[in-house]
Amino acid sequence: MRIDHLINGRPVAGSQYFETVNPATQAVLAEVAAGGAAEVDAAVQAAKAAFPAWAGLPAPERARKIRALGDLITKHVPELAQTETKDTGQSISQTGKQLVPRAADNFHYFAEMCVRVDGHTYPTPTHLNYTLFHPVGVCALISPWNVPFMTATWKVAPCLAFGNTAVLKMSELSPMTAARLGELALEAGIPAGVLNIVHGYGRDAGEPLCAHPDVRAISFTGSTATGNRIVQAAGLKKFSMELGGKSPFVIFADADLDRALDAAVFMIFSNNGERCTAGSRILVQQSIYADFAAKFAERAKRITVGDPLDEQTIIGPMISPGHLAKVRHYIELGPKEGATLLCGGLEAPELPAHLAQGNFVRPTVFADVDNRMKIAQDEIFGPVACLIPFEDEAEAIRIANDTAYGLSSYVWTENLGKAHRVAAAIEAGMCFVNSQNVRDLRQPFGGTKASGTGREGGTWSYEVFLEPKNIAVSM
Ligand code: NAD
């Protein structure tokens, strides 16, 4: 199979191709066009040319096409989920039941929203001030390899619904479902040039895209290191930067411990632990720490690692051999830093022969972790949990905030006042109280500190995809 760029509604061959492989088997899935500055420029020019007509469409007409794309995704859930699972190693139970349906939701939601964009009026005795929201123009949308389809659609849907045109660049490690998205967008009646897709590596395709003078806004999801690089190289543009995390999952002794345990297991081991909002630092109050740690490790040992196409599998392969090596590095580092390995570790999981070459790792739990250890400070982005004891509320807040990151956070307590106090005190873009991460498309999604700038979701997506203009009329 060959995947080309999509520029101005047509497949465009690359001058070079790279392979995307199934991380469970290393089988080659497709040859993918490797774009550079020339393809980026052609895609930006196509998006620029398509912009006036698309922005000029009445919102209900745009909404119809955006909704049609959501419907097409819904129709193709099984196919898209299979492709996503093969390309990323994310389990089919997640891609089929959660991630691809959520991609359809993104289009349905923003189709509803774009007809409701309104302004404000500020009348005074001398002037009538009012605001208009204009689309920004050509937007660069850059997606990482974890949950790539959901993430790409989370950007494409508001971008297009609000009247912008786009150049989408997927991660070189997971480009396949986006290629289908391009085809489905055309089938939904979205005109040629409105959604363009350039494949390729970050330095070759991503960098010229972000630096392109005709790109007006960048919505980027990826690592903090790349986010920093983009901000420095891109010049004056609108930015939304959704970056890395090392989110605290704080459990007080008075929590509903059965529910907390379920949620803690889910937040670090679902999606292979390759999740920006993973509750990767599990802070547990000292009085319940030993008991909780034993139960948590028992649950982790029972997690099914295996073929991501099997409905029973929870943890599939890591995305690439390079990423597997990174995760294994931290598993090796834990005991050297003084942490106690409760389960998992470096020994390869037992798997059937067809998965022998896959990038698999056992779910791993470290206890007695000190928050200053590297395993507690660095984003591992794999199924590795760090259990950190704390004494009281003040210490929980101090440890929770002792990190470069500030994406998500989780607080578990039955004490109402404490729940609100701790939720307010944690430095993070999001806090879930007595809950795992549950996405509401209206909520502001994003992080603070090294986890990024800007928020997306609901009207928060105006920030990057719409330009407010004030008009003052003398009375
Ligand atoms: P990455 O930063 O390596 O790559 C992300 C994307 O940026 C890829 O498409 C890549 O090709 C591109 N890229 C790389 N260098 C570039 C450059 N110089 N200019 C422009 N584009 C460039 O990240 P990754 O390894 O693909 O993804 C994992 C990271 O993403 C983790 O840190 C994770 O926390 C983060 N993430 C954050 C969120 C969030 O919402 N905050 C969601 C998912 C993933």
Task: Quickly describe the structure.
The chain has 15 helices and 21 strands. With 475 residues, it is of the alpha/beta class.
Give a description of the structure:
By secondary structure, this protein is an alpha/beta fold. The chain contains 15 helices and 21 strands. The strands form five sheets. The chain has a seven-stranded mixed sheet with strand order 15-16-17-14-13-18-19, sandwiched between helices. Strands 10-9-8-11-12-20 form a six-stranded mixed sheet, with helices on both faces. Helix 1 (37-56) crosses helix 7 and helix 3 crosses helix 4. The mean pLDDT is 98. The chain binds nicotinamide-adenine-dinucleotide (NAD). The site of nicotinamide-adenine-dinucleotide has 32 residues, from helix 7 and helix 8.
